[in-house]
Here is the input.
Amino acid sequence: MHKKKATSFSKKKGQLPTKICAQCGLPFEWRKRWERNWAEVRYCSDRCRRIHHLTHKR
Here is the structure.
């Protein structure tokens, strides 16, 4: 038998932490791939991250 991997959030999908995207302003939920660096996540997608960096070049 295969055991399921334990996640750091033992909550249901609707109860996961959320943040507001710094580019588009829409809310997004915690994802497993952001488990280690959730505190640094600012954008909901790679697209928003790229657009933000393109429009805010120095």
